[in-house]
Amino acid sequence: MNGAESLVKTLLASGVDTCFANPGTSEMHFVAALDRIPGMRCVLGLFEGVVTGAADGYARMADKPAATLLHCGPGLANGLANLHNARRANTPVVNIVGDQATYHRPLDAPLTADTEGWARPVSVWTRTATRAASVGADAAAAVQAARGAPGGVATLVLPSDVCWDAGGRVAAPLPDLPVPKVSPDAVQQAARVLRSGQPTLVVLAGAALREAALADAHRIAAATDARLITPMSNARVARGRGRLAVERIPYSGEAARTRLAGIRNVILVGAPPPVTFFAYPGQSPRPYPEDAVIHVLARPEEDLGEALARLADELGAPKVQPSAGGPRAEIARGAVTSEAVAQTLTALLPEQAVVVEESVSFGRAFYPGTVHAAPHDWLQLTGGAIGDGLPLATGAAVAVPGRRVVALQADGSGMYTLQSLWTMARERLDVTVVVLANRKYAILLGELAGVGANPGKTALDMLDLGNPDLDWVKLANGMGVEAARAADMESFADLFRSANQRKGPFLIELVI
Amino acid sequence: MNGAESLVKTLLASGVDTCFANPGTSEMHFVAALDRIPGMRCVLGLFEGVVTGAADGYARMADKPAATLLHCGPGLANGLANLHNARRANTPVVNIVGDQATYHRPLDAPLTADTEGWARPVSVWTRTATRAASVGADAAAAVQAARGAPGGVATLVLPSDVCWDAGGRVAAPLPDLPVPKVSPDAVQQAARVLRSGQPTLVVLAGAALREAALADAHRIAAATDARLITPMSNARVARGRGRLAVERIPYSGEAARTRLAGIRNVILVGAPPPVTFFAYPGQSPRPYPEDAVIHVLARPEEDLGEALARLADELGAPKVQPSAGGPRAEIARGAVTSEAVAQTLTALLPEQAVVVEESVSFGRAFYPGTVHAAPHDWLQLTGGAIGDGLPLATGAAVAVPGRRVVALQADGSGMYTLQSLWTMARERLDVTVVVLANRKYAILLGELAGVGANPGKTALDMLDLGNPDLDWVKLANGMGVEAARAADMESFADLFRSANQRKGPFLIELVI
Predict the structure, then answer these.
(1) Rounded-to-integer distance, Cα B55 and Cα B144, Å
(2) With an 8 Å Cβ cutoff, are A468 and B114 in contact?
(3) What is the C-alpha to C-alpha distance for residues B120 and B270, in angstroms, rounded to an integer?
(4) Distance of alpha carbon A25 from the chain centroid
(5) Which end of chain A is least crowded, N or C, by CB within 10 Å?
(6) Among B458, B460, B481, the residue to mutate for chain A (most A Cβ within 10 A)
(7) Cβ(A166)–Cβ(A291) under 8 Å?
């Protein structure tokens, strides 16, 4: 058994049975091993950003890591932006990067790069395999590290000779690392703050946004008047009719500060202290009042669900019934607005859909406007590295066949990783892509206005995606995805309804 | 004057007047400054790999650096692969990466990443600006560092507050750093080796591949029977009718070893010791015999043209007349082969064309088969990080308006940075893109065969770009580039001839 075979067998034994790949020469022995050993689903991406973003989306829905297969330092580099997003989402990913043979690397062949150095900032664990005999054990350790709460990217650099050398040994799966429980002190301190009657914000993130944890959070809020909120961007939120809704901190620092005025305490549940996305001259980078006191109920790596349950019990808080949500919404008609799209989504979103949203500017009404849609999971760009939406949708669809994935995708960010469409077509993934085509970097036009200058031609040209207009129907067709264009809400509703009923992907270019 | 304005004015004063950009929020003050200060041509790319590859192509043809404008660590990450290629090409690039405000960075907002750490492996110079008062001086230093022989990537990380703070000061251009001349000892040692009569290889790279330097290299070869050769991949080679041709080291290690058998001495002129692209079990990673002796006439940072001239003089070598190259070739007819494409290129290539080649497998006959084409420059992928061809073509076309750029682009690598087509359309660049559509990763099929296994379905699926077929005509149209498909050499010749006569880009999908 060569090293590559021991690696594949160890991954399978450790429960990793899906590999998003864009291989190169140095990975050919790994590819050959995948051929000989059944059980690994291999999904090809035509660009590494697709591969890493899909691995992120897969694990967010599968609750276990996929493997990637990338080619040398530059292949890793192409996948770094979406690994950055995965890092911010605390997503488990077993990130395998093929590389030069151990004895070839010092010769500095053209592809040689600082593979480990590039991987380290996005990884909770980084190792370069050195021998066929130990690469199985390396793989088992990588899976364990990736799965360790709250989850992270474990990068295994894989020199080609480690793959082709004989003497590979399959390693037994390593046990999951224990998830630390919060201390009784932290629970009691949070309870004291909540009982004080002072305006208190509870910031929920990560595993606190799953259905059971949210139910306990609502017990706490109902018993104490605490205000529940989530960060602007979250890996996965359970929401929709019959579930309890939580608002997000607004993207704009000014809106956030207005929204959080008067808050005296901030209790963190798996979240970092809130911070604005960017700094602006003369504005505070914190969205909460400067004199608010930060308390930590649970750190991201602790058992967040258990922490909320214990706090709710400590407070003697009874269960809360979610509201029925009223009659089912009608589809919107007429002009395309953010609110109209949210209304139609509420009317037509399939049960248990997975919504992937990458549309900060036009999409402002989508999240608040869809609380009464059918139950669904909502996935977002977590690290601000745009170009994550289409890959996330790809990976999510691989993870949960039978559930419709709806990608709400701005055109500017969609162009970063449009190659995802080809993988959707090839794998016949049940994804409805809605491209929100405003043909500009709308968010940056707002930011430029904030700079105070009267923007001139040079600046406007740099934020304009028209000249020429992108034709998303042709782009989709060029990669084997059927597509159509809508310019009013009636035709959008027709297309959206029929898209969600078909097998395989469909793209709607919604001109806004 | 704010920091951003002082930066733009300093760049212009230092001769940097072109900026390839994909800006974000943290760059808005820089964008606003570009508006207020005339003279900088801004070229927008819809993905950072387009931006950095275009900056590489621009400088290879303009012989001076362009600036980039990237957005934070993840934006840099998306551009790293083509900066890796630029590093291997020794291309001067002033790589500007906007980033979080100095006081915002410690708060670890979602986009915060290890910007400097990611930049360093591809950069000859890396600095994070800290004050508006000194960012002008930082920019002047960056230009000087990028231009320092043999050229490299100088990365300036630009926190947003450094841009918006008042007190910016324009810095005077710094002088070019002196280019070291080779020592008389090195020249005499090389002359001794060449006079010894032993089979000797002279490896030419970088500036040794410009027209005047090549003429001196041919004097040396004619006077001594030395064998001239270049690395497999080169930043820019002057070639075509009336110029002296130099062969390349073959890509395949086996072919290279056969070709270089019997060599006793290797003289390096701006080149590293030759090494195979990848290692293979049981094969030497060196393409030359193990007992060959390596000599260095000139290191990459030395004056290569002057070194060759002095060596030719030392040898008393007379001038060599290039051969006339015979009658102009006829276009090829019938089936599409690598040799047929080379023949048609030889017949139809416009005078002073810039050829950008990224087609290692099908393109094997292109380079040897076009030595008698009209005089042209030939640009290649230098670092093996695929997805450089279309961006290089974009940047080259910006650098030398009036010269036709011909991009010979494999389909698999073309998909990495297909967003380049939009920039070509927007800037109406005179580029003829020939996509060589074999609908597979052909080079990897060869590598997989080399692994010895009988490839099965899993492996073949991972190297197959069919299912679904990419439709490059639709992809091009979707980004505003006119396009057509050719499946035989007659229609290819018709399309190629007319494409080269039009203003602006045209894409030919050549089904092979």
Answers:
(1) 16
(2) no
(3) 23
(4) 30
(5) N
(6) B458
(7) no
CB contact under 8 A, A462 and B24: no
Q: What is the dihedral of CA B299, B303, B306, B307, to 10 degrees?
A: -10
Q: What is the predicted pLDDT for the residue at A35?
A: 87
> Are residues A67 and A19 in contact, defined by beta-carbon separation less than 8 angstroms?
yes
Sketch the domain layout of chain B as residue ranges: 3-164, 184-314, 338-511
- Cα–Cα distances in angstroms (integers) from residue A356 to residues A89, A115, A392, A403, in the given order: 14, 30, 7, 13
Query: Is B475 in contact with A478 (CB distance < 8 Å)?
Result: yes
- 8-state DSSP, B257: H
Cβ of A443 and B25 within 8 Å?
A: yes
Q: Please give the pLDDT value at position B244.
A: 87
What is the distance in angstroms between the Cα of B470 and the nearest Cα belonging to chain A? 5
Q: Hey, are the CB atoms on B383 and A110 less than 8 Å from each other?
A: yes
pLDDT tens figures, B148-164: 999 999 999 999 999 99
Q: Which of A118, A462, A478 sits opposite B44 (nearest CB)?
A: A462
Distance set, CA A209 to CA A55, A93, A140, A308, A379 (Å): 20, 20, 29, 11, 11
Is residue A326's pLDDT more than 80? no
A42 contacts on B by Cβ (under 8 Å) = 458, 461-462
Residue pointed to by tokens 């018709």: B494
Residue A373, SS3 per DSSP? coil
Q: What pLDDT was estimated at residue A445?
A: 85
Q: How many CB atoms are located within 10 Å of the residue B250 CB?
A: 18
Average pLDDT over residues A71-80: 98
List all residues 6 or more positions away from B280 whose beta carbon is below 8 Å from its beta carbon: B253, B450
Protein fold of B3-164: Rossmann fold (3.40.50)
Q: Please state, in angstroms and rounded to a whole number, the distance separating the CA atoms of residues B204 and A314.
A: 77
CATH of domain B184-314: 3.40.50.1220
Residue A365: partners with Cβ closer than 8 Å, 6 or more residues away: A337, A338, A339, A341, A342
**Stretch A283-312: mean pLDDT, rounded?**
97
How close A71 comes to chain B (CA, Å)?
9
Nearest to B99 by CA among A254, A285, A279, A87: A279
- Check: complex ipTM more than 0.85: yes
Residues of chain A in contact with residue B416, where contact means CB-CB under 8 angstroms, are: 46-47, 78, 419
Q: What would the DSSP string read from start to end of A291-353?
A: TPEEEEEE-TTS-HHHHHHHHHHHTTPPP-PPP---SPPPPP-SS--HHHHHHHHHHHPPTTE
In angstroms, the CA A53 to CA A77 distance is: 13
Using DSSP's 3-state secondary structure scheme, residue B416 falls into helix
H-only helix segments in A37-153: 48-62, 72-89, 115-119, 132-147
For B121, which of A114, A422, A479 is closest by C-beta distance? A114
Q: What is the mean pLDDT of chain A?
A: 95
pLDDT given at position B386: 97
Least-confidence region, from A290-294, A320-324, B348-352, B371-375: A320-324
CATH fold match for the domains B3-164 and B184-314: yes
Q: Do residue B472 and residue A478 have CB atoms under 8 angstroms apart?
A: yes
> A225 by DSSP, 3-state: which?
coil
Q: Which of B24, B426, B455 sits opposite A467 (nearest CB)?
A: B426
CATH code given to domain B338-511: 3.40.50.970
Q: Is the pLDDT of residue B456 over 80?
A: yes
For B28, name the nearest residue in chain A, comparing CA atoms only. A448
Check B46 against A77: CB less than 8 A apart: no
Residue pairs between chains A and B whose CB atoms are closer than 8 Å: 311
The residues that bridge with B95 in the sheet, in sequence order, are B68, B155
- Average pLDDT (B180-202) is 97
